[in-house]
Design goal:
46% of the residues lie in helices and 10% in strands. By secondary structure, the protein is mainly alpha-helical. The strands form four sheets. Strands 1-3 form a two-stranded antiparallel ribbon. A two-stranded parallel ribbon has the order 2-5.
Amino acid sequence: MTNDESIPNDQCPNDETAHPRSFDHSNIDHSNIDSSFVIRHSSLTTAVAQILAEADADIAARRPICRASGRCCRFEEYGHRLYVTAAELTHFAEKIENRKSKIENSSAKLVSLPQFFSTEKPLGCPYQIDGLCTAREARPLGCRIYFCDENAQSWQNDVYEKYHARLRDLHTQHGLPYRYIEWREALKEIMHAEPS
């Protein structure tokens, strides 16, 4: 598929099984995610998953076009940044931890977040492989909202604010301090999490 071809968002290729890999970090090793942190917040992650599912349905109803160009994950190249709430980061860590055990039982080659961050200036998202998201189920709200489709520009901010407000409320409901963190800085926090 070229960058100019369009496919409906609900048919957008979305995981490591949809596309062969030639790039070395086809899957990310999260062996150092603090699993006690994940367990303590399972009700929070369930609530985040519900909000993200509702956001997905809202977005799908708007029928944005995904061109599978990968621009959404190449932040520097396209002049945007991705931010996540602490609640989304908790959800992401749990989903990735669950996915990690499935990957360990397969023949997939793992590359660690420390390897991604070991470059002098890491660019883009470590989960983008060959223009596709390999963490699609776990991805935060900003990833779900962002489309290069010009017809999607008019509603993206309003939809983001609607669901971001609900995610923000979860922090109070679950006693989690609210934080809004740049994506790669958040991934570094996961990478450096110490068991409590």
